[in-house]
Amino acid sequence: MTSAAPVAPLISAYRGVRPATTPVWFMRQAGRSLPEYRELRIGHSMLDACLEPELAAEITLQPVRRHGVDAAIFFSDIVIPLKLAGVGVEIVAGRGPVFEKPVRTAADVAALPTLTVDDLAPVAAGVARTVEGLRAIGDGTTPLIGFAGAPFTLAAYLVEGGPSKEHLAARTLMHADPDAWAALMAWAADASGLFLRAQVLAGASAVQLFDSWAGSVSLADYVTRVAPASARALGHVADLHVEVPGEPAARGDQAGDQAGDQKVSIPVPKVHFGVGTGELLPAMRDVGADVVGVDWRIPLDEAVRRLGGAVPVQGNIDPALLAAPWPVLEAHLRDVLARAAAAPAHVLNLGHGVPPETDPGVLTRIVDFVHGLTQ
Amino acid sequence: MTSAAPVAPLISAYRGVRPATTPVWFMRQAGRSLPEYRELRIGHSMLDACLEPELAAEITLQPVRRHGVDAAIFFSDIVIPLKLAGVGVEIVAGRGPVFEKPVRTAADVAALPTLTVDDLAPVAAGVARTVEGLRAIGDGTTPLIGFAGAPFTLAAYLVEGGPSKEHLAARTLMHADPDAWAALMAWAADASGLFLRAQVLAGASAVQLFDSWAGSVSLADYVTRVAPASARALGHVADLHVEVPGEPAARGDQAGDQAGDQKVSIPVPKVHFGVGTGELLPAMRDVGADVVGVDWRIPLDEAVRRLGGAVPVQGNIDPALLAAPWPVLEAHLRDVLARAAAAPAHVLNLGHGVPPETDPGVLTRIVDFVHGLTQ
């Protein structure tokens, strides 16, 4: 980026300032919906693809090239920080991550290996390579979002030993042994936070914490047993700044090192997203998020209302509509965008990840459509 | 029942009148948590067990004998009315119901076979046998609740061809072809409603409509694309009455045929339950439910508030707490019961089904604990 470059629309929106057009990207935009991804993955396991820097970077760049989205999101898997720490886990096709040994007791928690910065070298290398690649796409300013699963989602995987529907074993441990639970959540928070930190230090311009499974807990449990760890995870990037063109405008901004270069250093924007978390939105903001992601279950204006009107939001296209005829999908997009007017700023996204069977042409069409509108 | 028998606490609570002690039963109380169930099922497929009257009755009675719960719930499976209509479906262990051919188009919907009253004969026989068996347990007044999956849940199975996480194909059809969707939902509503009707005519004293998957739709979609069919399903039992001891007290009550026998005929109580449906509770009441079931995600007093304070509620023990030490579970039970004071009446239940690995002794202990308290 040069001092003449505009602030990327994504970063502007994440800071609560509406850009001329609504930025748009798609959760799980890198992945199975793209034929070029399916081709590239041949002969590579999922976790290998995440940990091979060149491959992870290329997969991350594919949807940026194809769709012209306003952000790249680093291609990774929720269990990568656990794997890198030394936890025995593999991705089993059609099932998801399966762990060698579920974590069920205080002793199991105490025996978890510690994730170090060195362990994260393949991730840092992949991010650096991605950021370099992004400079060669379009006007070279597309930002990269760093990615991590939130502590609850990581802990649920660890306790269950794999995917589960209502995360009963994890939620039992939460109440049956609150100390072991707190220790596990602190461990997961550090794994999650260090994973995010490595990505920002390597060049990511924003981070998103995914709490895929937070929707299975009550607000009371969320506030007392989950939120402190999510705050701890985001705390690992609280001191990090990213450089953007412009002038200091908000609390936390710092003038650039060189006078007159019109660059400022801003705190890295932090997005927090969960599925089925309509009841939890303010609590999810309060862990230190700048932006809150909203699934498709509640209208965006209602989400904004629950958030008190002052928080930028991201979402909330119903993924089921991607397979509907275009006029139906367009009406839905217009509805989401209209409801987003209640927020200080909005980043258009799905309410959950791109379904694997999605026609990628539909995603490109959404980007073109949204970029053709002016706010 | 004789004219001297008290109104069963369950029926009293379902009518909004608090009995001396809180009635309690458990969703999926009949099933894999019981060793006597696992033994009885040997050599019988799930669907065979549901359709063999003697077996279904015995399985239904097992938890009443063991736990002393305040209700039996007829042992069945959500897909039974579809199976009886002639839809090709089998239960695959570890996966759930799998259909020969998903229903995806208007033509597929039009080709669905019609469920008739005659098809439901095995269900009616199982219910009659259960009601007879209940007369021999305790004081002989334990009521039987009839069971059916709600139209959305049935339709989601049919469209997906099996279990699915976010019911994308079903929710796509809902928007992509609203007419085919409406026709499918009407078909499912009749299957669901006739299934309930057969159970009430054979002796069930109440019904519960389970919309396991309604939590995946927004309120707007629920109201326009789901609720009309749920209302249609419950409409199939709207004219049915059940006889209970007592005197006419409420709208819809009718005096018994014989003067002086102190029996009244009341409209069959209708319970409506879904998982993750905190946003939908009033809409779920408005389809014609007398009682609303609440999962564990929102506190019961908040559910009562959303329901306007006038509706009896059922729930909402967190199933994850069943495996916690008793003092933790007891504190949770006391909290649920205290919050239930906001409702006109409350039936204690789980926020979802009994997990298969549950220690059945814990369920018995819950019943004894609750019956030992006076309201």
Automatic annotation (TrEMBL), chains A, B:
Annotated site residues (Transition state stabilizer) in this chain: D77
SUPFAM superfamilies: UROD/MetE-like
Chief localisation class: cytoplasm
CDD domains recorded: URO-D
Lyase among keywords: yes
Location(s) in or outside the cell: Cytoplasm
Entry keywords, A to Z: Cytoplasm, Decarboxylase, Lyase, Porphyrin biosynthesis
Pathway: Porphyrin-containing compound metabolism; protoporphyrin-IX biosynthesis; coproporphyrinogen-III from 5-aminolevulinate: step 4/4
Entry's Gene Ontology molecular function annotations: uroporphyrinogen decarboxylase activity
InterPro entries in alphabetical order: UROD/MetE-like_sf (IPR038071), Uroporphyrinogen_deCO2ase_HemE (IPR006361), Uroporphyrinogen_deCOase (IPR000257)
Domain Uroporphyrinogen decarboxylase (URO-D) positions: 23-32, 145-161
Subunit relationships: Homodimer.
Family, per entry: Belongs to the uroporphyrinogen decarboxylase family.
PANTHER family: METHYLTETRAHYDROFOLATE:HOMOCYSTEINE METHYLTRANSFERASE RELATED, UROPORPHYRINOGEN DECARBOXYLASE
Function text: Catalyzes the decarboxylation of four acetate groups of uroporphyrinogen-III to yield coproporphyrinogen-III.
NCBIfam families: hemE
Protein name: Uroporphyrinogen decarboxylase
Taxonomic placement: Bacteria, Bacillati, Actinomycetota, Actinomycetes, Micrococcales
Name of the coding gene: hemE
